[in-house]
Amino acid sequence: MNSTRRNFIQSSVIGTAGLGLGIASTTEVSAANRPETVEPETSVDVEVLVVGGGTAGTIAAIQAGRAGARVLLLERNSQLGGTMTTGGVAFPGLFDAWGKQVIAGIGWELVKECVALDEGQLPDFAKVPQRHWHNQVYINQFLYAILAEEKCADAGVEIAYYEFPQSVTKLDDGWQVDCVGFGTRRRVRCQQIIDCTGGAEVVGLLGLPRLREQERQPGSFLFMLGEAHEPGRNQIHRLYVHGADSTNSRTATVANLTGRKSILQKVRQEQKRLMHLQPETGFRESYRIEGETLITVGDYTSGRVFNDAICYAFYPVDLHTKSGVKPQPLKPGKVPTIPLRALVPKGSRNLMVAGRCVSSDRLANSGLRVQASCMGMGQAAGVAAALAAKQATTPLEVPLREIHDLLRSHDAIIPGDA
User: What is the torsion angle, in degrees rounded to the nearest 10, for the CA atoms of residue 40, residue 196, residue 62 and residue 114?
Assistant: First the structure.
């Protein structure tokens, strides 16, 4: 640093100190880039490719890595967590039903550690709440994102941010996925793909059938006016964005611009400070796959135990409309299950989904799409894909008993277990 610049900084510090102002502290760290990271083209061979690092994809990748698979996690945004972090819906649920925990495993491990590190509180699952949302867990969205990265690293999962698939080609022994990011072209060869994009984008690239309504549920843009938002302690103000559509970059852009414009109007009208603003709309609904099994609302509300159930789900039927939402609680004792075959696109091999794009009708999906259920699906998909890669087969040909056993060894709760 030259003497002129040093003197300028010193005088600036003295000047602001005299005014009672402070300069934020600065710490430093070095990013150790490998030589190959500056090359525009790269290729990688893995056993499991997880596309989408949101609620389900993060857990799927960690689970597959812990099961011994080589895993690449592809995420087009800048952090993990999806709806909980970028969307800001940082109060996941539901992990419990009727006085007992029904979803645990890696997702719950991550939530618990996040709450503990933030000195927060967990609900008492032994008590049946009067309203379902009383047992949703408040988490610090910023901590969650970086804890998820740490767990990926510990599991040997490689993360590729700012990248997304452009084409998917079937090979004799798996897949070739050509991806793009700014300054990067990546070719991935893998044995198994888990599509956790929310709208089953990989399934769409392959031309496999997907389901979608003519009208989507409104999205929510989360913000805070007039008072500080305390992550892990309170909920944020929500703005319904009607017509919000995450089908592609253009429709998502429209939703985000619409939401931000309305929030700016609120700032001017209410004359309150804008204290917090999430970077994008939280989307509730997009494409769903047509799977080997389709979960109907009758299956969901009756608590049907599928013969290939891999996790529980629990939440009211929760369809949002222009007139708002009136949750339809499940009857006492009813706990829905999710079958493995609902995670497999019909007629496909070496391909699974997890998250809100699970094969289901619209009303069932309105309850299935919440975070705890997506975590359970993600963990099951991670196990099935890792075992399929190890056995050089497809997930539905892996013995269900082996999937259940491996899930149990990673603390998941299997439907039917005492």
Answer: 110
Cis-peptide into 94, omega within 30 deg: yes
Inter-CA distances, 80 with 76, 144, 146, 147, 251, Å: 10, 8, 8, 9, 22
Q: What is the DSSP letter of 128?
A: P
Q: Is the pTM of this model over 0.90?
A: yes
Q: What HEC string does 61-121 produce?
A: HHHHHHCCCCEEEEECCCCCCHHHCCCCCCCCCCCEECCEECCCHHHHHHHHHHHHHCCCC
> What confidence score (pLDDT) does residue 23 get?
64
Q: Could you say which DSSP state residue 196 is in?
A: -
pLDDT digits over 231-243, tens only?
999 989 999 999 8
Residues 273 and 268: their CA atoms lie apart, in Å, by: 9
Residue 134 neighbours by CB under 8 Å, 6+ apart: 123
**What is the rounded CA–CA span in Å between residue 102 and residue 128?**
13
Within 155-296, where are the H helices?
201-205, 249-270
What are the φ/ψ torsions at residue 414 (nearest 5 degrees)? -100, 130
Write out the CATH class of domain 38-211+286-409: alpha beta
Domain boundaries, the chain: 38-211+286-409, 219-277
| 255 close to 243: Cβ distance less than 8 angstroms | yes
Number of C-beta neighbours around residue 35 at 10 A: 6
Cβ(312)–Cβ(97) below 8 Å: yes
DSSP summary character for residue 395: G
Q: Which residues of the chain have pLDDT under 50?
A: 5-6, 8-18
Q: How many CB atoms lie within 10 A of CB 161?
A: 15
3-class DSSP state of 275: strand
pLDDT one-digit tens code per residue, 362-409: 999 999 999 999 999 999 999 999 999 999 999 999 999 999 999 999
CB 244 within 8 A of CB 216: yes
Residue 408's pLDDT is what? 98
Joined together, the tokens standing for residue 98 give: 């009727």
Please state whether beta strands 48-51 and 71-75 pair in parallel, antiparallel, or not at all (unpaired): parallel
Q: Which H or E element spans position 405?
A: helix 400-409
Query: How far is residue 94's CA from residue 134's CA, in Å, rounded to a whole number?
Result: 10
Structural contact between residues 50 and 57, judged by C-beta atoms closer than 8 angstroms? yes
